[in-house]
Amino acid sequence: MSSKNSRAYVLAVIQPGKEREFANEVVSRGWILDSKVEKMDFVHGSFDFIIILTGSTHDIDCRILELRQLPYVRRTETLIPFEMLNWDDISAAVK
Predict the structure, then answer these.
(1) What does pTM read for this prediction?
(2) Residue 65's CB: how many other CB atoms inside 10 A?
(3) Digits of tens for pLDDT over the chain (95 positions)?
(4) Where are the domains of the chain?
(5) Tell me, which fold does domain 6-94 have in CATH?
(6) CB–CB of 7/63 below 8 Å?
(7) Which sign does the torsion angle of CA 55, 56, 61, 65 carry?
(8) HSE of 91 in the Cβ direction (CA atoms, 13 Å)?
(9) 3-state SS, residue 75
């Protein structure tokens, strides 16, 4: 696994009516303060939360497993972006 900083998006479906409890659980574990969770948004749609994780691939994998074990989590989907293009090279070529 890479030690380079990576990013992952975890889309979570929470037990209905337990969204606040789920958010409180993440906060009480200190994951946002110690940067295990970069950002967490409550959203309307097919999923209840979008959680952005950053760090090494190994750390992200561990955090995803921890998130899936939290109370009230019914289902998750994980999106892991990959770099197809080097945006710095593209910006330099345009100038």
Answers:
(1) 0.76
(2) 9
(3) 444 678 899 999 999 999 999 999 998 988 877 667 888 889 988 999 999 998 888 888 999 999 999 989 999 999 988 765 566 666 666 66
(4) 6-94
(5) Alpha-Beta Plaits (3.30.70)
(6) no
(7) negative
(8) 3
(9) strand
